[in-house]
Design brief:
The radius of gyration is 16 Å and the shape is elongated. Helices cover 0% and strands 49% of the residues. It contains no helices and eight strands. The chain has a six-stranded antiparallel beta sheet, with no helix packed on it. It has a two-stranded antiparallel ribbon with strand order 1-2.
């Protein structure tokens, strides 16, 4: 099994079962410093994991139980071979979205896409949106 990256979390000290379980939510790890005062800090998290593929969603709620943080990541791993004898796992596609609700009600959304490993150009960007992605 290929090792997943902790996209919006940090690796805890205890041992877990799967690669994505190694990450704990870290709501501000991708939040640019200039936006920190405008983002609403979550008080609780709900983490939903897909056990058959490398995917998860994280929802963070404010003190009133209203979503103020959202993140998801998805990884498609394919078997590849250079010689049709030795096979290895490679990232075929990766997608990550992290979003923060701002005090004015808008959402600051960070999208990162890694298409087709070496064959496509990866990209990342920040946008302001009216609604929570998902």
């Amino acid at each position: 099994m290929a090792r997943a990256h902790c996209l919006y979390g940090h690796k805890p000290h205890r041992t877990r079962l799967t690669a994505l379980d190694d990450c704990e939510p870290s709501w501000s790890s991708r939040l640019p410093p200039r936006w920190r005062r405008q983002a609403i800090e979550p008080r609780s998290f709900r983490v939903h994991r897909e056990h058959e593929i490398l995917a998860r969603r994280v929802f963070g709620d404010d003190s009133q139980g209203i979503p103020c943080f959202y993140a998801h990541d998805y990884r498609q791993i394919d078997l590849r071979s250079d010689d049709d004898e030795d096979f290895y796992e490679a990232l075929a596609y990766g997608e990550s979205i992290t979003a923060w609700r701002l005090r004015d009600g808008r959402w600051l959304v960070h999208r990162q896409i890694e298409p087709l490993g070496d064959e496509g150009a990866s990209g990342a960007c920040f946008n302001l949106e009216a609604r929570m992605p998902g």
